[in-house]
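Hypothesis: this fold can be encoded by more than one sequence.
Test: take the structure tokens below, design a sequence, compare later.
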């Protein structure tokens, strides 16, 4: 084990575990007020909701994949997974031991990703070539990723046969029926075949045979497929740590109104890993980061706990991109689709706005 400490302590050592939407913004916000260390298995932050555009336009990823050190110039980046937490330290898979005065858990969902930015860029290029070289494409999963990928392919490559298979009774089960129906109807107008209430056996196509069998007895011909199913929370590693008893039955960290892990004064959790009953979306994770970092700064300065900021979940808003111009948007009192809501998201997918929030030029590639 290699024990490491920042140059200055003074109760200002902050360790952020997870470099996704919430963790990246929290680290950036704390870097000039604390000795901050960001722990992440990869060397870059990705604007995840823009990833599907990068599969049909690899150059788009030049702005959506950002090395952590680009926005965290006054902090430290440790490129290794965290494997243990004690009451005062975080241990990484590389054997590094980092002391903390404040800890932020922002590990989100578990996904296997390349370690370097260049490897991820190459992955998008490979997926693009996979799409362009195929005449027929199977997409498994009718959540936001599956629907948005089907839409991206249908718009950019209208000559390709796209089939989406989903095991639920409707698409986009995290939003209302009206939004799901609008997305379904839009896909049908783009000649995307949607099969609901069915599973697909991906092992059913033997070598040379590109026909996949579904649980409904149908056969889907596809030159390639993409798996777009939900990822589990990245919290299993916490079960062997001091935070084990702070996990609920679904593997989420239970937090109080100040986004502190319940029962702990100096440990915060933000983003998808929290047990807050709300939609798990990027803009909400950024709100978590804003509240948590404000509270950490208050505590570091010796402020009164009574002045801590509370996080209050807002109304659920969801925007599902449908290619480059259209989208389905669900607001508290209405659901709309087409090019008008598409103006909100679909052209740039909030990439410029997200980069700007991290102190970066909205347009320049990294």
């Amino acid at each position: 084990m290699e024990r490491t400490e920042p140059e200055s302590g003074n109760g200002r050592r902050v360790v952020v575990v997870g470099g996704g939407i919430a963790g990246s913004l929290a680290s950036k916000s704390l870097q000039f007020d604390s000795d901050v260390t960001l722990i992440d298995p990869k060397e870059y932050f990705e604007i995840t909701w823009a990833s599907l555009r990068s599969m049909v336009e690899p150059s788009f990823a030049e702005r959506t994949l950002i090395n952590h050190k680009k926005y965290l110039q006054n902090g430290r980046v440790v490129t290794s997974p965290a494997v243990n937490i004690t009451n005062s330290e975080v241990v990484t898979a590389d054997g590094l031991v980092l002391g903390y005065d404040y800890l932020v858990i922002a590990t989100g969902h578990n996904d296997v990703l390349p370690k370097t930015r260049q490897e991820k860029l190459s992955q998008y290029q490979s997926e693009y070539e996979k799409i362009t070289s195929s005449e027929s494409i199977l997409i498994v999963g009718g959540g936001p990723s599956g629907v948005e990928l089907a839409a991206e392919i249908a718009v950019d490559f209208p000559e390709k046969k796209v089939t989406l298979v989903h095991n639920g009774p409707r698409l986009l089960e995290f939003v209302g029926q009206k939004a799901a129906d609008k997305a379904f109807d839009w896909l049908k107008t783009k000649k995307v075949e949607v099969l609901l209430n069915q599973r697909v056996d991906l092992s059913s196509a033997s070598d040379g045979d590109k026909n996949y069998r579904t649980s409904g007895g149908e056969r889907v011909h596809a030159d390639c497929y993409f798996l777009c199913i939900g990822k589990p929370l990245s919290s299993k590693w916490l079960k062997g740590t001091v935070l084990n008893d702070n996990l609920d039955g679904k593997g989420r960290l239970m937090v109080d109104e100040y986004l502190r892990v319940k029962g702990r004064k100096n440990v915060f959790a933000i983003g998808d890993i929290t047990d807050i009953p709300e939609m798990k979306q990027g803009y909400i994770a950024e709100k978590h980061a804003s509240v948590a970092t404000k509270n950490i700064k208050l505590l570091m300065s010796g402020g009164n706990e009574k002045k801590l900021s509370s996080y209050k979940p807002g109304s659920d808003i969801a925007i599902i991109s449908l290619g480059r111009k259209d989208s389905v948007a669900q607001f508290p009192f209405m659901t709309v689709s087409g090019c008008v809501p598409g103006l909100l998201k679909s052209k740039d997918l909030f990439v410029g706005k997200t980069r700007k929030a991290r102190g970066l030029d909205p347009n320049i590639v990294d």
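The longest helix spans residues 282-300. The longest strand covers residues 35-40.
Hypothesis status: open.
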